[in-house]
Design goal:
The chain is α+β, with helices and mostly antiparallel strands. The chain has three domains: 5-72, Arc Repressor Mutant, subunit A; 80-129 and 204-233, 2-Layer Sandwich (Alpha-Beta Plaits); 130-201, Alpha-Beta Plaits, CATH 3.30.70. Helix content is 42%, strand content 22%. β5 and β6 form a beta hairpin. α2 packs antiparallel against α3 and α2 runs parallel beside α4. The longest helix is centred in the N-terminal third of the chain and has 16 residues, at 21-36. It is globular, with a radius of gyration of 18 Å. The two termini are 15 Å apart. The mean pLDDT is 89. It is found in: Cytoplasm. Its main location: cytoplasm. One of its GO terms (molecular function) is DNA binding.
């Protein structure tokens, strides 16, 4: 798979260490998920996914509780989930998932980020067909063989299991997200280093150094937008 999930997590944690932006984004995402169904993760699978992911980013409990209470309170605030697709330097591919209460603002901001950083927006479907929706679960303290045995005993099928540095990363179909986590929890796993529903590129590309620098600026510009939830791409950014 080649995604180097531990390195990606470390980069995100470093970038977000001195800002509350990531917490604000999670607060919005939790509110929307809780409002769309029951504000209980045991009966609301969408909310459960968001909360599992929030744990891996160490989102404070008060942020989570506040968002759920806001949903319980019947707030009439509404958000649209929108996806934008585009191209970075040298034809690299980017998908941007957003959660917004102002579609015009978000579209303009995303387009500006592309245009100012060597990219351009594409039409719907111009990029997404080169990506696969994937559940990614990471854990420490186990080997790939351990993980495989646990999943086989639980009769859970996955796409792939890899060892990356000191962690095991499991790639599965999105609908297997909870089954994979449940199998590991039953086996005594209490924390996950990664818990994501993501879009993985079918093929990664490498860019020349100057293009790579520009591409990273594009990704940073997109991720810094308040309305952006997730950014996916097909570039191997290395270590």
């Amino acid at each position: 798979m080649g995604r180097k999930w531990n390195n990606i997590k470390e980069k995100k944690a470093s970038k977000d260490a001195n800002t509350s932006r990531v917490y604000a984004k999670f607060g919005r995402e939790i509110f929307v998920a809780a409002k769309q169904g029951e504000p209980d993760p045991e009966s609301n699978q969408a909310l459960k996914v968001v909360l599992e992911r929030a744990k891996t980013y160490s989102v404070p409990k008060n942020i989570i509780d506040r968002a759920i209470e806001k949903a319980k309170g019947g707030s009439d605030e509404t958000f649209d989930e929108l996806r934008y697709e585009g191209f970075g330097p040298n034809g690299s591919m980017v998908i941007v998932d957003t959660l917004t209460n102002n579609v015009n603002r978000t579209a303009a901001d995303v387009r500006a980020a592309f245009n100012k950083n060597g990219g351009n927006m594409g039409v719907n479907g111009s990029v997404a067909y080169m990506f696969d929706a994937t559940a990614v679960i990471g854990l420490e303290g186990r080997t790939a063989d351990d993980a495989l045995e646990i999943l086989m005993e639980a009769d859970v099928d996955v796409r792939d299991i890899l060892e990356e540095e000191d962690a095991v990363i499991v790639y599965a179909e999105p609908e297997q997200f909870h089954a994979v986590q449940s199998a590991f929890k039953e086996a005594g796993v209490e924390e996950f280093t990664v818990a994501e529903l993501t879009m993985l590129a079918q093929n990664e590309v490498e860019l020349a150094e100057d293009a790579n620098v520009q591409f990273e600026k594009l990704i940073d510009a997109l991720e810094e937008l308040d309305d952006v939830r997730q950014v996916y791409h097909n570039v191997d950014l290395g270590e």
